[in-house]
Write a structure and sequence with these properties.
Strand content: 25-35%
Shape: flat
CATH superfamily: Holliday junction resolvase RusA
CATH architecture: 2-Layer Sandwich
Distance between the termini: 25 Å
CATH class: Alpha Beta
Largest sheet: 4 strands, mixed
């Protein structure tokens, strides 16, 4: 089966913590922050385009995620060049695991039935000229281990 490939444009966004509001001081309601919901919608749109009418995966999946962050403009030209050459790594927000959560939740019901299907995951976080997240998903065929 062919891999599913898509790119989510723009600066990667980590999944935000749920927010809580109260109504009348009695009823608490939890909701997803607007920035997270908007980013997950962008992910779903990119994934849906890549699926091109294909049914969501139902088996175990392998996922490769390449997060590309923009190089800070405040850095010197020398440090910017080093970052673009892969010599400086982005050890700043967003956290890679929070971006993965947002990507996975955005793919639910589009690329796969549920993100519990992700069994093999590779994540890279680097600097680049064009920020975005490149995602490749493919179903894992056959058993890796004998019973």
């Amino acid at each position: 089966m062919n891999p599913i490939r898509f790119t989510v444009p723009g600066t990667p966004v980590g999944k935000g913590r749920p927010k809580v509001s109260t109504r009348g001081g009695k009823f608490a309601r939890m909701y997803t922050p607007e920035k997270t919901a908007s980013y997950e919608g962008l992910i779903a749109l990119a994934a849906q385009t890549a699926m091109a009418g294909r049914a969501p995966l139902t088996g175990p999946a392998q996922v490769d995620i390449d997060m590309v962050l923009g190089v800070p403009a405040s850095w010197s030209k020398r440090k910017q060049a080093a970052a673009l050459a892969g010599q400086v790594f982005p050890t700043k927000k967003p956290d890679a695991d929070n971006v993965v959560k947002a990507i996975f939740d955005g793919m639910n019901g589009v690329v796969w039935t549920d993100d519990v299907q992700a069994c093999d995951i590779v994540v890279r976080k680097r600097y680049g000229a064009t920020p975005g997240v490149m995602v490749v998903v493919q179903e894992i065929q056959g058993a890796l281990f004998a019973a």
